[in-house]
Every structure is written in structure tokens, then in C-alpha cells.
Design the sequence.
């Protein structure tokens, strides 16, 4: 039933119905935004990526074929945009001084000091400690609620490799959480 | 990459996701109950997953979300992708790797160029040149030539030549001397003819 409703919304979006687009994205907005916040360095960066994703999805909808689930397609777009942004930042960081990184870090820390939920900070920081591939798989699984098969397609990796990344990500996160006395 | 001996670490995700067959699931249910290591792995995995799932959703406010939707659905964004949307309809990569959309795009450009050539009005106009430019002897040159020819013909007439020479002499004495000189010349000529 939900799939049918989603399908109808997609058809309306393809015909330029903006309200249908709002409805369609509303179902995934918090999942998608959380995924982007955790993947990027800050809320501001996540907002930019979220906006870019919406533009890409809206402009790409006329060409969207229902071969894959809409959520899988949506997260694939967000994932690719986030990866592009990550690569660009990586290049910029190589050019900039180390002091710039310290500045970003202290700014982030400063924001976190005011957050009442300490666990949120630990979670955010622990995810940053994961290698890129493990973090991608973990976040797509957690926030995208995608199957491992879909994640394998999005990240262009064999299914078994994706499962390995997930296993090691969970193992590493558990160690970090234990060190921080969360578990 | 997990080795074959670490298969349970991989398969546990299929169990958690519920993508196992009924028989496999039942087998795993039994294993988790009876094998301590597996039970521990399952428990720890679920614990981590739950921590990262619970209470850490980052929300985007409704006004912010609506503003982003408005930005994304602005006309120019979709118009920008209008052409690519059309070409996506043709996008079929065949086995040899030839991109049909590129061929379609190239063909469309060729047709458009042909249409522009056919319907873009009159061909380039060549300025009309005056017939004078093609005349071998334009009027001014012709008249000059005519004057020279007249002069030559006049010079060929003996009487006329004498007349002109006479007129060119300004003083009367000179004119008289000229006439005497000419008369002497004529007499000498006549005498010469008679003696012959």
C-alpha cells in the first residue's frame, strides 16, 4: 500500500507536482538528514548536501526508472554528493595548514559542549574514527535502512565486502563505546 | 574481508535483516540459543546497532524543509535538466559500448544545422558593380585619347601645322619673318622640282 502511494507520488512529481515532491521526501527527510549529518563534519555541511540532494532528485526524477527502490535511489544520490564533497575537502585540507584543522576541531568541540546529550557527541565522534568505507556502509545501513544488496550496488562493492565492512565497523564502534563507558 | 571461517560474522546480518530462508532462520535461532560465542556476537551487534539507532536522529525543521523544497523545485533547475532528460530516454549502452544518446545528439545537431542553412533567408548578396568598372575604355580616357588623335591628325596636315606655328609666334615681326621664310622654302621647292 505504501509502495503504491509512493509510486503515485513519483508519477505526480514527474509531472512537475511540487506538493507531491514535498510529500515524497517528507517520508525520508529525517533519515536522510541524519545520515548526512553523521557523514559530514557539521550540521551546516549536511544542510548544504541535503539541499543539493533535493535538487538532484527533483531534476533527475523525470529520468528515474523504478528499477530500484526510491529510497535506495535517494540515498545513492546523497551518498555520491557526500563523497564528492568529502574528496574536495580532502584536497583542500592538503593545501591548507594543519592549524585550520585544529580550528575546525575546536569549533566543533565548542558546539558539542553546549549539547545536553553527551551520548550524541560520542556517537558523532566515534563515527568519525571509522575508516571511510566502513562508515559509509554503516550509515547507509543505519539511516538509509537499505539492504546490504542495495548498499553493495550504491557503493559499487561486492556483497561480501560490504558485510565485512559492516562487521568491522560494529566491532570498532563497540570498542570505542566501551572505552567511553557507554556500554 | 572475512575469511570462510568467519562466515557467521557475515551471515548474522542476513539473520538480523530477516533475509534468510525459513529453514536457515530456524537453524540460526537454534544456534544462537545453544552456541555461546554466537549468542555473544548477536547480543553485542544488536547492542551497538540500537545505540546508533535510538534517539540520535537529526531533524530538519519544517520551515527549513519547505524552503529547501521551494529552492529545489524552482523552474530553472528542472529546465536545466530538460535536455538531459530527453536524451536519457534514448540512453541505451549497447554491448559494444556505443552510447546511443551521443549519436542521437550528434544527429540532432546535424539536422538543426541543415535546417538553419535551408531556412536562413537569401544567400549572401553580391554588390552590383558599375559597368564603368568593366569598361576597357572609360569615357574620360576615351575623350583624352580622342584629343590626342585629333592633335596627331592636325599635325599631319601641313597647312594646318603652319597655321598653328604662325599663331604661336607672338610678335608681328616674327610672324612676317616666318611667312617670308615659308615663301622662300616653297620657291626653293618649286625650283628644285622644275630642274629635275
Sequence:
Amino acid at each position: 500500500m505504501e509502495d503504491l502511494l509512493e509510486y503515485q507520488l513519483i508519477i505526480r512529481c514527474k509531472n512537475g507536482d511540487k506538493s507531491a515532491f514535498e510529500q515524497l521526501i517528507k517520508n525520508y527527510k529525517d533519515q536522510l538528514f541524519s545520515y548526512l549529518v553523521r557523514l559530514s563534519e557539521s550540521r551546516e555541511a549536511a544542510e548544504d548536501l541535503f539541499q543539493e540532494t533535493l535538487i538532484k532528485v527533483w531534476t533527475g526524477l523525470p529520468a528515474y526508472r523504478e528499477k530500484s527502490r526510491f529510497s535506495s535511489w535517494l540515498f545513492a544520490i546523497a551518498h555520491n554528493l557526500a563523497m564528492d564533497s568529502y574528496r574536495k575537502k580532502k584536497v583542500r585540507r592538503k593545501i591548507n595548514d594543519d592549524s585550520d584543522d585544529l580550528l575546525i576541531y575546536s569549533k566543533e568541540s565548542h558546539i558539542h559542549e553546549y549539547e545536553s546529550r553527551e551520548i550524541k557527541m560520542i556517537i558523532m565522534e566515534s563515527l568519525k574514527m571509522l575508516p571511510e568505507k566502513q562508515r559509509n556502509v554503516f550509515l547507509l545501513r543505519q539511516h538509509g535502512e537499505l539492504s546490504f544488496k542495495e548498499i553493495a550496488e550504491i557503493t559499487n562493492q561486492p556483497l561480501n565486502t560490504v558485510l565485512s565492512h559492516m562487521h568491522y565497523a560494529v566491532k570498532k564502534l563497540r570498542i570505542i563505546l566501551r572505552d567511553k563507558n557507554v556500554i | 574481508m572475512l575469511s570462510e571461517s568467519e562466515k557467521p560474522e557475515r551471515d548474522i546480518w542476513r539473520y538480523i535483516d530477516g533475509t534468510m530462508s525459513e529453514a536457515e532462520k530456524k537453524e540460526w535461532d537454534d544456534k544462537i540459543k545453544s552456541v555461546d560465542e554466537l549468542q555473544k556476537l548477536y547480543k553485542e551487534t544488536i547492542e551497538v546497532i540500537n545505540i546508533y539507532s535510538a534517539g540520535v536522529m537529526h531533524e530538519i525543521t519544517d520551515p527549513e524543509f519547505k524552503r529547501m523544497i521551494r529552492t529545489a523545485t524552482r523552474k530553472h533547475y528542472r529546465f536545466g535538466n530538460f535536455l538531459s532528460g530527453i536524451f536519457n530516454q534514448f540512453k541505451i549502452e549497447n554491448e559494444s559500448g556505443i552510447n546511443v544518446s551521443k549519436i542521437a545528439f550528434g544527429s540532432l545537431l546535424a539536422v538543426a544545422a541543415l535546417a538553419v542553412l535551408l531556412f536562413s533567408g537569401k544567400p549572401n548578396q553580391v554588390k552590383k558593380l558599375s559597368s564603368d568598372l568593366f569598361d576597357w575604355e572609360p569615357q574620360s580616357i576615351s575623350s583624352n585619347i580622342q584629343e590626342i588623335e585629333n592633335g596627331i591628325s592636325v599635325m599631319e596636315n601641313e597647312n594646318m601645322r603652319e597655321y598653328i606655328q604662325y599663331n604661336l609666334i607672338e610678335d608681328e615681326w616674327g610672324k612676317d619673318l616666318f611667312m617670308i621664310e615659308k615663301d622662300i622654302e616653297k620657291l626653293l621647292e618649286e625650283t628644285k622640282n622644275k630642274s629635275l
In short: The first helix of chain B runs from residue 7 to 17. Residues 168 and 175 of chain B are 9 Å apart (CA to CA). Residues 158-196 of chain B form one domain. Chain B touches chain A at residues 1-2, 6, 9-10, 12-14, 17, 19, 44-45, 47-49, 51-53, 55-60, 64-66, 68-73, 77-78, 80-81, 84-85, 88-89 (CB under 8 Å).
